[in-house]
Amino acid sequence: MNSFLIGLQFLTRIFVVKQSIWTEDSFGQSVKYFPAVGAILGIICAGVVGAINLLHLPLFTGAIGFASLIILTGGIHCDGLMDSADGLFSGREREKILDIMKDSRAGSFGVVAMILIAVIETSTLIELALLATWFLCAAIYSAPIIARLMMVVTIGAFPYARPTGMGKAFAKFTTRRTIIFAAGETLLLLLPLGFISKIFFLCAAAATLIALIVTWKFATFSTEKIGGVTGDIYGAVTTLAELFVLITFLMIGNYLR
């Protein structure tokens, strides 16, 4: 339970019990609960956008849906995306890329990447809002869960590129068993969608596959560039996975309409 609360506090701005003392062990062990943290985000966001969409304001619904995910996480994953874009697309050598990614200032590649994500994700949410409220809720519930499973996969399947760093504790304690545990956890969290509609569960399954492909390609690209992944790559993977989950739901929903 303590590890779950640490994961919740680290990945979100939700504080059930404030954790002030984190050991490397408990910090690393929190990884297997990341999909459950995603479920909490998904429930809150689905409730918010579902209620707003009842007002028949799809543009507002889409904007709030995108903003809610950022607000609840404090933008931690967006920061990772921007740093990753600045570094990986800089055309520099490995050490310089790592230095760029460590720099807290946002560069042009990072800003452009974030703008593109914001536009595409908000547009996708607007289209989902126009499609059906239940479809929108299912998509935005699933996205944070699947995205955090992808973070676990990245942590466990790819080497950590830096000799030290906050993400090092994640990598140290994440094994194949951790990934299997997180995958089973994700399945249990997505199963309720099947009781509402089998289509929702099939969408979630397809979205998981698409997100896994995107995650693997991006993490492989990072490994080729800098010899592994970093905490910023974890954030970038999460942001990209959420986007592709939403897009997958939209594509299938439009096809079935």
Write a concise keyword list for the protein shown above.
mainly alpha, single chain, 12 helices, 257 residues, 81% helix
Short overview:
The protein is mainly alpha-helical and 257 residues long. It is built from twelve helices and no strands. It is globular and about 50 Å long.
Give an overview of the whole structure.
This protein is an all-alpha fold and 257 residues long. It has one domain (34-160, 168-256). It is 81% helix and 0% strand. α3 runs antiparallel to α4, α5 packs across α7 (108-131) and α10 packs antiparallel against α11.
Helix content: over 70%
Structural class: mainly alpha
Given as residue ranges, the uncertain stretches (5+ residues, pLDDT < 50) are: none
Total number of domains: 1
Strand content: under 5%
Largest sheet: none
Mean pLDDT equals 90
> How many DSSP helices?
12
Q: Tell me the radius of gyration.
A: 18 Å
Oligomer: single chain
Secondary-structure element series = HHHHHHHHHHHH
Distance between the termini: 42 Å
> Rough shape?
globular
Describe how the helices and strands are arranged.
Elements: H1 2-11, H2 24-29, H3 34-53, H4 58-73, H5 76-88, H6 94-102, H7 108-131, H8 133-157, H9 166-173, H10 176-196, H11 198-226, H12 231-256
